[in-house]
Amino acid sequence: MMLSSQCPSPFFFPGHQKRTTTSCSPRASAELTASPPSSLISRRLILLRHAHSSWDHLSLKDHERPLTKTGQADAAKVAQILSSLGWLPQLILSSDATRTKETLKSMQAQVGGFMEANVHFIPSFYSVAAMDGQTADHLQQIISKYSSPDITTVMCMGHNKGWEEAASVLSGASVKLKTCNAALLHAFGNSWDDAFAIAGPGGWKLEGIVAPDSSSICV
User: I want to staple 20 with a disulfide (CB 3.0 to 4.6 A). Which of 10, 77, 124, 142 is the partner?
Assistant: First the structure.
């Protein structure tokens, strides 16, 4: 894969002037993990918005809209990038909408490692994303329900506006997620409940944004 020398979009941090990144450097997974405080375990959270979906079939309910061919290709690209960075999830929690299921299917077809994760489809991920101010807390509840202490990387797949909002709340940055963009978040804790409690709102480190048109991390 050719390495992109341009970030797909600028990134904004609250309390600072607009920060525009003009170049992105691919970073190894080791560089995306800070040294843990004392003996706490690293916890990595991927918040992935579904890939581009079709509006061609007006008779379909929104929940049932499929991916476009572009969306399928983008999902495969993001899977490859996450794999190259060493961010393969052990647990995948996904909305049960057709477009999120097809995003995951394309990722699994591209990178076998995504087939090895435990997968749960969460109907509430579809509805909560449309509600103001509820997604971050809901993600914490669902992650705590389905995870175990030995799981260190979780991917949650869903929809805007909730996924942008949750990434922003957790990191304290103003996160924008286009279709098939993934926010990479990092914290520490001996369990996932512990990590959420220690980091609190704004305490998760935003390692970067993965996009299908760039093989590098952009922040």
Answer: 10
